[in-house]
Amino acid sequence: MARELIVYCDESTKRGEFFSHFYGGILVESADYCNVARSLSEFKEKLGLHREVKWAKITSHYQKLYIDFIHHAFDFIRQGRLKVRVMFTQNRYEPL
To answer: What Rg do the C-alpha atoms of the chain give, in angstroms?
Structure first.
């Protein structure tokens, strides 16, 4: 069977004095996808997080829930079932 990888990506596009383009990606083997996705989805629902888990939306009420969810996701990272990459371009200085 051929090896398949699934990559989820996201980016940041906010402006500001120290703005940079941030790109993040999570890679999961297709053989692990169903189990990992189901576990993360069920855990998220158990915590009562019904929308997108996004740090920009966090409130003091949701802080512990978000941290618990991230700890659960990091269990998969420790197991090697998820791989995370965060990249950015420093664009503080614009070319002339």
So the answer is: 16
Q: What one-character-per-residue DSSP string does 67-84 give?
A: HHHHHHHHHHHHTTS-EE
- What are the structure tokens assigned to 95, written together? 């070319």
Closest CA to 80 of 41, 36, 23: 36
Buried b (16+ CB within 10 A) or exposed e, 32-69: eeeebeeebeebbeebeeeeebeeeeeeeeeeebbeeb
pLDDT of residue 11: 65
**β-bridge partners, 32:** none
* Overall pTM > 0.85: no
28 C-beta neighbours (distance < 10 Å), count:
20
